[in-house]
Write a structure and sequence with these properties.
This protein is α/β, with parallel strands linked by helices. 41% of the residues lie in helices and 17% in strands. β1 (9-15), α1 and β2 form a beta-alpha-beta unit. The termini are far apart. The model is unreliable at 241-262 (pLDDT under 50). It comes from Amnibacterium setariae.
Length: 262
C-alpha cells in the first residue's frame, strides 16, 4: 500500500497587541500531539513585547500594515504554505488534540472544504461557562446558519484547505476593517463549498467579546455591516437551500430584507 503523506497544517494567529494571551496561545500550540507545519503570527500593530513573545515561541511574524482583523487574517492565509490553514485568535488556547482533530476531519471527508468548532469561555465558573458558551454558540451557529445558508466559520477555531482560500482570496473584503472576517469569508465561500461543524473541535477562549454592552454593540454593528457588504450572497440564500451545506432558509427566509445594498 502506498504511503500517504499527512497534510501539513499552517496555523494563522492575527494579533494587534496581546502579549499575555498570545504567550498562552503559542504554548498550547507547542503542546499539540500533531505539530503544525508552521505558526504564523500576523503583526497588525503589535508592541515590541508582543513580537518578542511570538519569536521566542518559534512563530514566524508576518507584518500587515493595513489595519483590521480582516486584513491581518487574509495576510496570514496568503503567507501560509501548508495544505490546510488553521485559524486561532490570540486569546484562544487549543487542547493537545486540536490539530489532530482538524487533520482527521479532512481525512474522513475528502470533499470537505472547511471545518469549524466551538469556543469555550474558560475564564468563567463551570456553571456560567456552560450557559454562556451554549447561548453564544447556539445563537451564532443557529442564527447565522439559517441566515447565511451555510455553516458559519468561527474565527477562533476553524480550518480550511489552502486551495479553497486561493480560490476566494480575491473576493473577501480584506481592506474593510468593519467586517467580521470569519462571517465575510463564510459568505464568500459561496454556494458549492462544504463547511462542517465538528463538536469535538473545541478551544478555550476569553470572554472579552461578550464582557460589556459596548463590546456587544460593536459586534452587532459589525455583523450588520458584514451582511450588507455581502448582499449578493444573502440574495442567493433567499432563493433556497445552498448546495451541500445542510442549512436552508425555510419559513425564516421571509425575515430577510428583500433588498440589501452594500
Amino acid at each position: 500500500m502506498a504511503h500517504v503523506t499527512p497534510p501539513r497544517i499552517s496555523v494563522v494567529v492575527p494579533v494587534r497587541d496581546d502579549a499575555p494571551y498570545l504567550g498562552l496561545c503559542l504554548e498550547a500550540l507547542a503542546r499539540q500531539d500533531v505539530l503544525p507545519h508552521e505558526v504564523l503570527v500576523i503583526d497588525n500593530g503589535m508592541s515590541r513585547e508582543t513580537a518578542l513573545v511570538a519569536r521566542a515561541a518559534g512563530a514566524t511574524v508576518v507584518p500587515e500594515t493595513m489595519p483590521g482583523l480582516a486584513a491581518a487574517a487574509a495576510r496570514g492565509y496568503d503567507a501560509a504554505t501548508g495544505d490546510l490553514i488553521a485559524r486561532l485568535d490570540s486569546d484562544a488556547m487549543a487542547p493537545m488534540n486540536w490539530l489532530r482533530e482538524i487533520r482527521g476531519a479532512f481525512a474522513v471527508d475528502p470533499g470537505l472544504d472547511a471545518v469549524t468548532g466551538r469556543g469555550v469561555f474558560a475564564d468563567l465558573s463551570p456553571a456560567r461557562r456552560i450557559v454562556a458558551s451554549a447561548g453564544y454558540h447556539g445563537v451564532y451557529y443557529g442564527f447565522f446558519g439559517i441566515a447565511l445558508g451555510q455553516v458559519p466559520l468561527h474565527g477562533s477555531n476553524f480550518a480550511m484547505r489552502r486551495a479553497v482560500w486561493e480560490e476566494v482570496r480575491a473576493d473577501v473584503h480584506r481592506s474593510d476593517p468593519g467586517v467580521h472576517d470569519d462571517l465575510d469569508l463564510t459568505m464568500r465561500l459561496g454556494r458549492t463549498r462544504r463547511v462542517r461543524f465538528e463538536p469535538r473541535l473545541a478551544v478555550a477562549v476569553s470572554t472579552r467579546a461578550i464582557s460589556s454592552i459596548p463590546r456587544l454593540a460593536t459586534g452587532v454593528k459589525r455583523t450588520g455591516h458584514t451582511m450588507r457588504m455581502n448582499a449578493d450572497r444573502l440574495r442567493e440564500t433567499r432563493a433556497g437551500r445552498l448546495v451541500g451545506t445542510g442549512f436552508g432558509i425555510g419559513p425564516l427566509g421571509s425575515l430577510l430584507p428583500k433588498r440589501l445594498h452594500p
